[in-house]
Design a protein that fits this description.
Strand content: 35-45%
CATH superfamily of the largest domain: 2,3-Dihydroxybiphenyl 1,2-Dioxygenase, domain 1
Helix content: 10-25%
Number of helices: 3
CATH class of the largest domain: Alpha Beta
Distance between the termini: 32 Å
Length: 119
Amino acid sequence: MVRLDHMQLPVRDWRAARDWWRDNLGFEVEFEIADRNTVAMKDEADLTVFFSNGSPLSGDFALTVQVDDVKAKHKALSTKGITFIHPPQKLFWGFGAELRDPNGYLVRLWDEASMKAGG
């Protein structure tokens, strides 16, 4: 078996990244190492993303996150004042919405039912 287990992303402020990914996308804190300015955040599939202070990556880089209902998640996050690049729609990669996290990382949201139905 081969599967992605964890990855590390540099961020401007690990605490702000922790809060944003926890509060908006439902990742949970696995552990923190404050003296190393690092937090390990885990999704429901057990993928761990380490956010640590540094210069965020630039370029054509996207994180694709599966949610239960992309239209409902878009509405909930928009209501909180989060700005989207665009609402859920058909795109080259399928059906979903795109936004940027506070570090500028492109985040693509999708759900299985909408993807299968094409929107």
